[in-house]
Specification:
single chain; 467 residues; alpha/beta; N-utilizing Substance Protein B Homolog, Chain A; Rossmann fold; 2 domains; 9-stranded mixed β-sheet; 4-stranded antiparallel β-sheet; 42% helix; globular
Length: 467
C-alpha cells in the first residue's frame, strides 16, 4: 500500500469541543497532541472533532493538517495498528499498559502511512511520551516495538494470519467483526470490499450552493478567485467538492453563500425534488442540512424547522443567522410534535448509528454494537409514528438516515407500514434524474453506499392517501 502525504486543509465544520487540551509545555508537540486527542476520543462518547477543535488552534496550518491526519488516520486503522503492535511485541494488545496505547498507535500510523515524517522522529517522540506516562521499562518497550516496525514499514510486512476469513478481513480493513459479517451477507464480497476501503480513505469537504444566490457556478468562481480549488459534485446539482483550500475562511462563507454538507446528504434531502409553495416540516432539523438543501433547490418552499435539543438548536440558529435565512424554528420532539396544521411534506432525520459516515467519523466503528442498532431502531420507529399525523392527505413522509443497516431503515419502515395502512411507498421511478436515480432500491426506497467522495445514506419516501 502506498503512503500518502498529510494535507493541511480541515475537512469540515466541527461541533463544540467537549474537552480541553492540556496546557502547552516545552515538550508539547503535534504528535503528543494527536495522542491526547486519540486517547480521549476512545475513552469518551464524543466525536473526535470535539477534541480536535480544542487542540488545533495551538498549531500553525501545516501542523494542524498533520494533527488531523494523525488522529483520523489512527482511528480509521486502529484495529490493524493494534494487531501490528501485538505481533511486533509478541504479546496480546490487552497486556500492554493502557498509557502506552495512544503513543504507539500514533507512531505506528506515521511509520506505515506517512512518507514525510522521518522514522527516527516518530520513534523518538513516542519514546519521550512513554517516559512521561510510565516507567523506564515502558519507554524501552515502546522503543523496541517501534524500531522493529521501522525496519519493515509497510502493511504488507505485517500480514494478518487469522484462520477465520471474516475476522481476518475485519482486522485487515480495520472494522468490527460483526459489521463486516453483516455487510458481506447483505452486499456481497465485492461491494463490501469497496465499502471497507472507502471507509479508510479521507473525505474531501463539500459545500452546498443556493440557487437564489447565484448557484454553484457563481460560488465556484468566488472560491476560485480566493485561491481554492473546487469541482462540481456528481450527486448534487448544487454541490461543490473542495480539493484545495478552506472555504470556511472565505468571503463567500461570511456572506452566507455556502453551507458545508456532504453531496449524498444534499441529494438525499431532495427525494423527491421540492415544489414551489410546498409546505415542509423538518421535524429533526439541527444543524439544518436537510432544510438548507430543500431551500437551495427551491427557494419558494415554505419551511418550518423543529428540534428537541437545545444545544443542536443553538447550532442551527447560528447557521440560520450566517446564511441570512429567517426560518421559523420550534423546540419540539418529533415523537410528540405540537403542530396542529398539516404539511405537504414531513422530513425526518431518524436516529441511527451512522454507519454511512465512518470515513468522516471513524470513531463510530469502535463504539457501535448490535445492541445499539436495535435501540436506535426502536427510537426511530417512535419518531416516525409521532411525525406521521402531521402529513396532509396526499402528502409525503420522508425518512432519512446516514446508516446502511437494514434494522435502521427497511425494518423500521416495514413495522411502521404494518400499522399505518394510510401510507404506502411512493414510486420514485421517473421522479429522479441520473445519477441519483441509480440509488433507487425498491418502491419508495433509495440508498447509496459510502464511496467516491460521498457518505452513505438511506431514504424512504412514503405517500399518504388522499382520503
Amino acid at each position: 500500500m502506498s503512503k500518502r502525504h498529510f494535507a493541511p486543509p480541515p475537512q469540515a465544520q466541527t461541533d463544540a469541543g467537549r474537552g480541553r487540551a492540556p496546557r502547552r509545555t516545552p515538550q508539547d508537540n503535534v504528535r503528543a497532541a494527536a495522542a491526547w486527542v486519540l486517547e480521549r476520543t476512545l475513552q469518551s462518547l464524543a466525536p473526535a472533532d470535539s477534541f480536535l477543535e480544542s487542540a488545533l488552534p495551538r498549531f500553525d496550518e501545516r501542523d494542524q493538517g498533520l494533527l488531523r491526519e494523525l488522529v483520523m488516520g489512527s482511528l480509521r486503522w486502529l484495529r490493524r495498528l493494534d494487531h501490528i503492535i501485538a505481533v511486533a511485541s509478541n504479546r496480546s494488545f490487552s497486556q500492554i499498559e493502557a498509557p502506552l496505547h495512544a503513543p504507539l498507535r500514533v507512531a505506528i500510523y506515521q511509520l506505515l502511512f506517512l512518507d514525510r515524517v522521518p522514522a527516527h522522529a516518530a520513534v523518538h517522540e513516542a519514546v519521550e511520551q512513554a517516559h512521561q506516562v510510565t516507567h523506564r521499562g515502558g519507554a524501552s518497550f515502546v522503543n523496541g516495538v517501534l524500531r522493529r516496525i521501522a525496519r519493515a514499514p509497510r502493511l504488507e510486512d505485517w500480514p494478518v494470519e487469522d484462520t477465520d476469513p471474516v475476522r481476518r478481513l475485519a482486522i485487515e480493513k480495520s472494522h468490527p467483526d460483526f459489521l463486516v459479517a453483516r455487510w458481506l451477507e447483505r452486499f456481497g464480497t465485492a461491494r463490501t470490499l469497496d465499502l471497507l476501503d472507502a471507509n479508510n480513505r479521507a473525505k474531501p469537504m463539500q459545500v452546498l450552493a443556493f440557487r437564489d444566490r447565484g448557484g454553484r457556478e457563481l460560488l465556484a468562481e468566488a472560491l476560485i478567485d480566493e485561491g481554492l480549488e473546487v469541482e462540481p459534485a456528481v450527486l448534487s446539482p448544487l454541490g461543490l467538492i473542495v480539493r484545495r483550500g478552506n472555504p470556511l475562511t472565505s468571503a463567500a462563507f461570511r456572506r452566507g453563500e455556502l453551507y458545508v454538507q456532504d453531496e449524498a446528504s444534499q441529494a438525499a434531502a431532495l427525494l423527491p425534488p421540492p415544489l414551489p409553495g410546498e409546505t415542509i416540516l423538518d421535524a429533526a432539523a439541527a444543524p439544518g442540512g436537510k432544510s438548507f438543501s430543500l431551500l437551495a433547490a427551491e427557494p419558494r418552499v415554505r419551511l418550518t424547522l423543529a428540534d428537541v435539543s437545545l444545544g443542536r438548536a443553538r447550532a442551527l440558529r447560528a447557521n440560520l443567522r450566517r446564511l441570512r435565512r429567517p426560518l421559523p424554528l420550534a423546540m419540539a420532539d418529533a415523537g410528540a410534535p405540537p403542530f396542529r396544521r398539516p404539511f405537504d411534506r414531513v422530513v425526518l432525520d431518524l436516529p441511527c448509528t451512522g454507519t454511512g459516515t465512518l470515513r468522516r467519523h471513524p470513531e463510530i466503528k469502535w463504539r457501535i454494537s448490535e445492541e445499539e442498532i436495535g435501540r436506535l431502531s426502536r427510537q426511530a420507529l417512535r419518531l416516525l409514528e409521532g411525525a406521521a399525523p402531521l402529513v396532509a392527505p396526499g402528502g409525503r413522509l420522508v425518512a432519512i438516515t446516514c446508516s446502511l443497516e437494514r434494522e435502521e431503515n427497511e425494518d423500521v419502515v416495514a413495522r411502521f407500514l404494518a400499522t399505518h395502512p394510510e401510507y404506502a411507498p411512493l414510486p420514485l421511478a421517473g421522479l429522479l434524474e441520473k445519477p441519483v436515480a441509480a440509488g433507487v432500491t425498491g418502491p419508495g426506497a433509495w440508498r447509496i453506499l459510502t464511496g467516491a467522495d460521498h457518505d452513505g445514506f438511506s431514504v424512504h419516501v412514503l405517500a399518504k392517501a388522499r382520503i
